[in-house]
Amino acid sequence: xxxxxxxxxxxxxxxxxxxxxxxxxxxxxxxxxxxxxxxxxxxxxxxxxxxxxxxxxxxxxxxxxxxxxxxxxxxxxxxxxxxxxxxxxxxxxxxxxxxxxxxxxxxxxxxxxxxxxxxxxxxxxxxxxxxxxxxxxxxxxxxxxxxxxxxxxxxxxxxxxxxxxxxxxxxxxxxxxxxxxxxxxxxxxxxxxxxxxxxxxxxxxxxxxxxxxxxxxxxxxxxxxxxxxxxxxxxxxxxxxxxxxxxxxxxxxxxxxxxxxxxxxxxxxxxxxxxxxxxxxxxxxxxxxxxxxxxx
Length: 296
Prior knowledge:
It contains twelve helices and five strands. The chain has helices at 39-70, 80-111, 117-122, 136-144, 146-150, 156-163, 171-176, 200-205, 225-228, 233-246, 251-269, 279-292, and strands at residues 14-18, 21-25, 31-35, 124-128, 178-182. Helix 2 packs across helix 4 (136-144), helix 10 (233-246) runs antiparallel to helix 11 and helix 11 packs across helix 12.
C-alpha cells in the first residue's frame, strides 16, 4: 500500500479467520482482532432473549383474558360478526408472533448496534465479516434462516453448523456474511459526544481523574469555514475511524497515520495545516467543527 489515497477509503478490508478469532486488516495496515463468541455465550444470550419473549407472550394472553372477562356478552354473539372478530383476532395474533419471533432479533440487531437484550447482557454482538456494523439487510437475512437453524429443535442444526466451521457461524451467519464476536471493552474511541478539552496524547499517559469534565469549544484552529465546507460525511467517518483504532497502535504508527489523515484532509480543504498544530489536534478540531455545523 502506498500513498494517502488508500487510507481515504476505510471501507476496504482484508479479513481472515483463525480458530476463535476474526482478523481484519484495514487499509492503513492495522490488524484488528475480534474474539469470536462461542456456543456457550451465544446459548446464554438466546436463552435470555427467549425468556423475554416468553414473558411478553404471557402478558399478551393475560391482557386478552382480562378483555374477554370484561365482556362476557361477547361469548353470546353469533353469526358473521363473531366470525369477523375471530378472523381479525387470529390475524393479529399470527402477526404478533411472527414479529416477536423473527422481528425481535432482526430489528434489535439492525438498530441496536448488532445486539439484542440477551447479546447486550452477555457482551457479544453481530458484525459483518469485514468488521463493520451490520445493516438491516444482513439482520433480516441471518434471522430469516433462524427457523432452519432451530430445526429439529433446540437449534440443533445451528449448533452442528457452528461446530463445523472455525468462525462458529450458524447457517444464517454463513448466508448473511456475519459473525458474532465478543465486545471489545478495553479500548474506546477518543472522540465522544462531549468533546472535552483533554488531548488524545494526554488521555494515553494521564491517569483518569474523578472530576466533572465540562464540554468546551476548542480554541481558534486557523482553518477557514469555507475550507471545512469542502469536507464530506465520509471524511468525518475517516477521522472517527482513526481515533477508534488509535489506542491499538504504537505511538510511532499512530503519529504516522495522523499525519497521513491530516494531509489527506488538508488536500481536500485546499489549505495547509496551521503552523505549529499537531496532526491529532487538527483532526480533533476538524471533527468538532464539522459536527457543530449540524450537517453531519
